[in-house]
Amino acid sequence: MSLSKHLKTYVFRGFLAVIPLVLSLLTLQILYVFIDRRIMDLVEETLGFSFPGLGILLLLVFLFLLGLIVSNVIGRHLMNLLDRVSNSIPLVK
Prior knowledge:
The protein has 93 residues and is an all-alpha fold. 86% of the residues lie in helices and 0% in strands. The protein has two helices and no strands. α1 (3-47) crosses α2. The protein is flat, with a radius of gyration of 23 Å.
């Protein structure tokens, strides 16, 4: 393999490896700004003072709950799949 082909291949692979990281960071930033602005405005209007770090805390709670929901949904589908596979095996049924 020539040097230029080698460089192109690995630069492209490196680029593909960075894309999910950049997209994740952008998503986290957008969620943080969205949650932080909305909640901080609501807290200031309601309580009359700001609560630094509330946006980060709520983002972590949101991500935890989302992970919990996704894990349970995927887990349920996985268990249903295993149940169907085991029911299709004559001796295991």
